[in-house]
Amino acid sequence: MNKPKSWAAFQRWTRNREASWRILIFLGLLAIAWVPIAAPIYWLGYTFGYSNITEIVALALLYLGFLWGLPRWGKHIHRWPQPLKQYGLVKNAATARNLGVALVIGVLGVFALFGIKTLMGWATPSAPSPRIGRFVIEGLIMALAVGFAEETLFRGWVLAELEQSYSATISLVVNALLFASTHFIKPWPEIVRTFPQFLGLVILGMALVWARRSPGRFGTSSSLGYPIGLHAGLIWGYYIVNVGGLSEPTGRAPEWITGIDSNPLAGLLGLILLGIIAAQFAKIAKPKTQIFLDSKA
Predict the structure, then answer these.
(1) How do residues 64-92 score in pLDDT, each as one tens digit?
(2) In-domain check, residue 60
(3) 264: nearest Cα among 57, 110, 119, 48
(4) Are residues 102 and 27 in the same domain?
(5) Which of 155, 146, 154 lies closest to 235 in space, CA to CA?
(6) Are residues 112 and 63 located together in one domain of the fold?
(7) Last residue of a domain, one of 27, 47, 79
(8) Smallest Cα–Cα separation from 265: which of 211, 209, 196, 173?
């Protein structure tokens, strides 16, 4: 059965737009599909007092819609024969190995920050919570879920769109800025109070782009293994220390050094750590995520 001419024309028109237009069009189509389903869910939740559960369900449906639409967008708009691989979702042993390596880097980096703070007298070690084992497991699950979701979105889809239209440097900077900006969708007073975190998020975003562009060990193809692992490792390490109650600040150093809200990545020490990680990935990163950019790959 032939496709309607209007649909084929829409595909051609969208394919020839710049990345910013394609991103907005995809998000618009996603919203059109999601709002009619989410609206009654929100109404029921707020009517019967289940607003928190409602928000989780609605956001989960939004992300499931994103995952459903992602390969179809790549296939019909960009004509990629393997769109998931184009976005870095490669299922093989190399991806799993890269994810594990980066996960360890992230966790050890966070532990190193708390170790330095302890040696400097800016924090004191505490007896771990009796539920520390549970926190380690649930922290890992949560970190991997967040890492997968955000990296598929930013270093998977958004980066692929940007690299179709812009240079490697512009794609890198825009991706990092978008990543940081979306974490500041909150009330204005809170934006002002936590704004020093913005620089750390930008550096982290750049590190994750370079991780995405880095070939795996032994020259294997680049994928989302490194960025998912690094992102998840940083979250997991912070979760273990913070929720597990392994460290307490002494108040002897200002927050701009140790981190706002006890987040080690939101202070000078965290910026140094992120800078080191970013520099190491930048050394091995390719100019772009080239391995699947050819539509004939």
Answers:
(1) 999 999 999 999 999 999 999 999 998 88
(2) yes
(3) 110
(4) no
(5) 146
(6) no
(7) 79
(8) 196
